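Per your request, structure below.
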């Protein structure tokens, strides 16, 4: 008798468990559409977005990282500056366009007349430029390149139909600006490999180690990499302020790629101290 009752109870439990798997779950959310549990596909994302049908515990708001919205366009890029090192980046969906994640300076160094905003709307400063605004540095270089004046007339080099000239030296707020020009008077194009600026000794004794100090430009306006035949290209370089001792000089070397028409000229300290000043009111 006891065995019969136990077997009857087990069978009723199995039947009731199978019935609960196919029963419709009632929810008090005011919706007439109700998700149905299925045994074949589990877990399954139902209509209410619950992946585990209420079995997973919801996160509180204080444990969530709220997102920050950024406006992006196809004409500008956005700077995102983090206080610490970035260790992980989630790009989201694989269908996201990497074009929208591009980071440049265009949104900070803008033209107020073009975007209908004041020019100091996003004023930033870079350590390498000191107290000078990057936007003003760019405007000064563009102004020097546009005016195209030859203030220096005694510094240059000409060999093999190539002429490399220093047209002007300018200074403003702790920065030096060098205006150079490459003239190709031959019919063969001139490919620029690299340009070096270095401070060297004027006289080097025999069996003496040569000491050179490389000067790296901070910015370059219209950096020329190719000068076609019978053409010329001009470049404006920006450098940190420096002076040259009496026994040294600044040598500028222009090297041709896969060629031998190299050019070089020398700048003395007296040329640097005669640099022209720049009036911000005349920069346009």
């Amino acid at each position: 008798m006891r065995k019969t009752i136990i077997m009857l109870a087990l069978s009723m439990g199995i039947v009731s468990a199978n019935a609960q798997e196919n029963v419709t779950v009632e929810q008090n959310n005011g919706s007439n559409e109700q998700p149905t549990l299925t045994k074949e596909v589990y877990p399954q994302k139902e209509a209410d977005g619950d992946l585990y049908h209420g079995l997973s515990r919801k996160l509180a708001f204080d444990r969530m990282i709220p997102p920050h919205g950024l406006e992006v366009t196809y004409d500008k890029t956005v700077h995102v500056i983090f206080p610490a090192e970035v260790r992980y980046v989630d790009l989201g969906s694989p269908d996201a366009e990497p074009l929208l994640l591009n980071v440049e300076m265009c949104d900070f160094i803008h033209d107020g007349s073009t975007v209908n905003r004041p020019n100091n709307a996003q004023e930033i400063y870079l350590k390498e430029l000191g107290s000078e605004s990057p936007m003003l540095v760019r405007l000064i270089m563009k102004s020097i390149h546009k005016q195209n004046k030859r203030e220096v007339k005694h510094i240059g080099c000409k060999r093999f139909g190539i002429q490399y000239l220093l047209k002007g030296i300018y200074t403003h707020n702790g920065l030096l600006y060098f205006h150079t020009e490459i003239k190709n008077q031959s019919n063969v194009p001139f490919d620029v490999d690299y340009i070096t600026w270095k401070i060297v000794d004027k006289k080097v004794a025999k069996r003496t180690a040569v000491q050179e100090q490389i000067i790296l430009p901070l910015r370059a306006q219209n950096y020329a990499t190719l000068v076609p035949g019978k053409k010329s290209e001009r470049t404006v370089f920006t450098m940190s302020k420096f002076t040259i001792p009496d026994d040294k000089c600044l040598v500028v070397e222009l090297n041709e790629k896969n060629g031998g028409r190299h050019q070089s000229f020398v700048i003395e300290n007296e040329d640097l101290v005669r640099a022209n000043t720049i009036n911000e009111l005349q920069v346009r």
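The helical segments are 2-21, 112-115, 134-147, 269-273.

Regards,
D.
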